[in-house]
Amino acid sequence: MYAAKKMITLQQYTRGWRNKLRLWKWIFQGAIAKKGLLNFPAPIDISFSFDRKQEAIITLVRSEDLDVLMEVLGYKRYKLPWNLSPKIIVDLGANIGISVLCFATQYSNAKIFAYEPNPLIFQRLIAHLRGFPQVQVFQEAVGSTEGSRHLYINRDSHLSSSLYLRHGTQEEYFVKTVSFEQVLERTGGFVDILKFDIEGGEREIFQSPEFVLQKVGCYVGELHGDLIGGAEVSNIIDTLTRIGYRVTTQPLGTQRFMLYALKAQ
To answer: What is the pTM assigned to this prediction?
Structure first.
């Protein structure tokens, strides 16, 4: 049984809030690691908003939730270097919904399609998105074809579920899959922003025909060179550049990169 929840409010305008978040991450994760736990003794609600618009609330339950919170809110991995007014956003690898809520509160007029196949966290995603009717959620993995495939999940880390078998303790679940072209069809044929963090599955997305890739205005996401290989990362960057995108990357360690790609007008 959990104790009472704690509530912490993050305002983007608070001076030094990123350092405070980093401190919370260090304190909370350090404390529960000493006890050998994966979960917090009590859930912690984090409220935040962008541009003083609609407030979002995320409930932190697992230690790794702080990693996602730090990645999205602290390091602002999905903050785009361009001033956009998107109407359609797709989030591939929505996890528990932190990135989705950032998009929903920052771009309040956009319709959002969120995909997360992991059955162990899907209900948390649904719960976090209540109150945001502009978001549609799909318990599906996105790859090259429609059907069903194994999803490999490490119970100790819900951040690393993948369609590809990895080292470590893995559990297998059959999940529904849809093709990237089907994702685009659901949106009406064009996506203004496509965010992806799908643990190697990006290889199948960017192997789509070039005319399909060009149906996205802006790509932002993580390239997993440790899973798909450095040559494949280079191929993705080269392909997007060749078909008319302005591409920038940001290293995340030695083999992973954040990709930001904007289609030229």
So the answer is: 0.88
